[in-house]
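Let us practice reading a record.
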Amino acid sequence: MWLRWIAGLSVVFALALVAPTSGASKPPNRPIYFIHGWNLNADTDCASTWGAMTKNFNAWGLKGTRDLANLKAGQIPFHTVAYYHGDKNCNTRIDADGDHSKSLPLPAAPLPGPQPHREGSSTPNTPIEHLAYHLAWNIYDTYSSRNVPIDVVAHSMGGLIIRYALAATERHVADFPPYLLVEDVVTLGTPHGGSRGHRFAPSLQGSEMDPGSSFIKSLVKFGFNPQGRGGTDWTTAGSDDDTAVAADRAVGTDRDRDPRDKYIGSQHKVWYTAVNHLEHSDYYKVATKNATAIAWVATKGKPFGSHPLAIVYPMRMAYFALQSPGN
């Protein structure tokens, strides 16, 4: 279990960095998809968003590259996903994946702002379900159809995109691919239970992420623990200092951590407390290898611990979570 790198309960308050044991498995040789979150201006820079994480993943043992055109033998493809019309420095654009004549319909923009499609790509008024359709087909065409499993690290709304893609595929929703091979998913600050108020408005995607929205309610029932073929291991992380998505809604539990699974049945949950000062964009920026944080942690079949545990910061945590032996 990936939580072997957490400090033992007898030294829970020691705050020493916890590394994998000597018997820890080697980093997996699976391609990784990095999926960014909502952006009202539709112009996320994948290099600045994922640069620190991919650099550190390399330093810690996941030998990968964002330069897919010059992929070398033994290197892991790091796919930085673009879905907005203005996204830049991303290496994997999903707009053309799937058949638009069959995909989920694009409604007229329900709020002031751009139409769902602009310059052949998406805007903040493109439904999350539609983005999930494109993502699912990109993963299937590139890897699943070739029997190659992948991993996913997603921030904010990006976690909802992969969650819906897996749920719709698993439930054989019309026009989605026949199956997906996704071994691990790590979501960072994803509003599985909705955002803080209207944090991501005004846009259709912002409305879908509002707490109590029909999209959030349906996803809790439709994709409580979505699985790819062969199983998918979910790790959901949230922070008390995240002003966009409350920690309980990001990890998918109740405010008092009972029930353990309320918004998503993730196998692993990591709730960073306020002492760490982790804001919404810090999940992919803070790269302190040798620092520890305080978090409530729960694993499959077990409740949250009775005390906060010493644990590594989100970027390092995501690296270890991708080495999970299974769900």
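A brief commentary: Residues 1-24 have pLDDT under 50 and may be disordered.
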